Amino acid sequence: MEDRSKSLESPFQTPLPEGNDIYPKGLYEVLPTFDIEKEKIQKSYNKLADSVISKINKGLRVLVIDGYPGVNWENIVNGFRESLENKKINFEFIRFDLYLREADKINEDLKPFLGGDDRIFGTHYPFGPEVFFDTKKIADLRIESAVRRGDKSGKLTIIVGTGASLIELWDELWYVDIPKDTIQDMFRHGKANNTGYLAKDFEEFYKRSYFIEWPSFNRQKKRILNYISLFIDGQDDDNPAFIDGDDFRNALNELSQSPFRVRPWFYPGPWGGQYMKWHMDLDKDKPNYAWSFELIVPENGVIFRSGDNFLECSFDFVMYFNNKNILGEHIANQFKYEWPIRFDYLDTIDGGNLSTQVHPRPTYIKREFGETYTQDETYYIVNSKPDSRVYIGLQEGCNIDNFKKDLLKSAKEEIEIDIDKYVNSEPSKPHDLFCIPNGTVHCSGSGNLVLEISATPYIFTFKIYDYLRRDLEGKLRPINIERGFANIRTERTSSWVKENLLAKPKLIDSGKDWKLFELYDKPFTFYKILRVEFEKSYTINTDGKGYAINLVEGETIDVVSSKGRTTSLAYIETMLIPAAAEQVTFINTGRKPCKLVLVYVKPEVGISIPVNDPND
Fold first, then answer.
1. Of 128, 236, 278, 542, which is most buried, counting CB atoms within 10 Å of its CB?
2. Cα–Cα distance, 1 to 266 (Å, whole number)
């Protein structure tokens, strides 16, 4: 293939020329880390076994090893067993998966939350993981644990498996974590499944995970966080990394007061583009990359580095340990343990249009799915090709009944329609911002790198038209025409969109070499979007607010916290600034002027204004 990337001036060029389909590698770091003291993270089953030996003579008789759904317990038990045997430790394993209920009994209790025949949607399960386990058997095991804790020292009982901490009685508790993107990849390769149930395909697996398993086992994570004696990263189950529980909590505390990046993850899709693949130096064997999950906290993790060793934990732990440091006290009271702002990339450069879609209104998402707020979003155009567009709102005079009839006919007969007949579109260029509150028909057209800035709920997209495309497994992607039309705000036509949903930057402050613009402050959403443009440096005081930021122009900046940490941020990278960071200075270390997007929750949310516009 001819390397046409040479015609680009640099990896930071905007807008993109029409002829390119290969792009120079930029400075984006796909595995960002947060440094802690050396020798805090260790690796290997032998060192895990060593940590047990000295404790047996000090009263360790019952060790519980709990972990998240998706952990490869077979490998962990076998690896740990071998090291214990080599060290001549007297031990017995009790597998907690033997205490699961029968699948049909689990399903009966979960049926109201599984969404019936709906391929995508269920309802959030409101309790912990007890539903998966046999109550009487666990009660008996709890008694047995109490008995064994009273034995003479010298013999170790190890109760191991997802949910094992439900027995409540132990001498020491270990926890094995695993990222949610890794769990999904394991399912696709036949290495993981749902708890107590074998899903037939990825859609069923993900629906049960999202609505049932992840919420319920997250509640258990929160309950036991302060009791964990050893935290283990379960990704490399041949040579696991681990950290002492107190050191883990200290690391979480330091992180909650410092600017940091979560680990992004990337996934191809039927409409995906080519820009991220080359600029971020991703796997060239993939057909495309549609998404970069930059800051979707329910599915992101944080990587700690100690010397040459690395360990990842889910971001949930950060929020459970000190949500007020991250969000600020008032916002934490409103959103509890959820980070409410989502950043992700949608890459349609040399790709196709997204599906035409709409997000649910506030009352609808609460009643139908058990979410606490809805998916209001915006599209920030980071880069684009000539003639790219964003579809937003309805055409003036759109006959909504005819639109629905044509969509239903298209879905039934598998015939394409002309979406431009019904949906308004606007030209897009770098640094444009399109506001997309719930109920607005929208999608990105081809040729855009979109930074999607949104409320955190992230799967509630009602596709009403998808060009008859199939997913990566070869199935027609699910269409939700009825749900979509139950939520479309039909007054949002071309003229209304131009007046209300196309951002008009307003200068609100300036200094010697910087200007601060307000891009988005509408009553539709609970967050505000600013952009600071600076030559040398810019300083913010968090004033009790957590920020999500992204360097949308420039090369690199240093991010200097008043708490004593300095880290870096490169072009198109995302970072979270906790409220407890207090004062942070951004210093330009590149050759180009910088543009930095800053997003935060409005301080008056939950006091003088609601989380979502109540006008349903």
1. 278
2. 24
Helix (H, G, I), strand (E, B) or coil at 370: coil
d(CA 101, CA 124): 21
Domain 46-221+233-239 maps to which CATH number in 3.30.360, 3.40.50, 2.20.28, 3.30.1460? 3.40.50
Same fold, 4-29+261-302+326-500 and 506-601: yes
pTM of the model: 0.95
What is the widest separation between alpha-carbon atoms in the chain?
Answer: 82
CATH pick for 506-601 out of 3.40.50.620, 3.30.830.10, 2.60.120.10, 3.40.50.970: 2.60.120.10
From the list 420, 397, 395, 416, the residue with the least C-alpha distance to 407 is: 416
Q: How far apart are CA 193 and CA 199, in angstroms?
A: 7
- 24-54 pLDDT, tens digit each: 999 999 999 999 999 999 999 999 999 999 8
Structure tokens at 575: 């970072």
Using the CB atoms, write b or e for 419-433: b if 16+ within 10 Å: beebbbbbebebbbb
Pairing of strands 389-394, 423-427: antiparallel
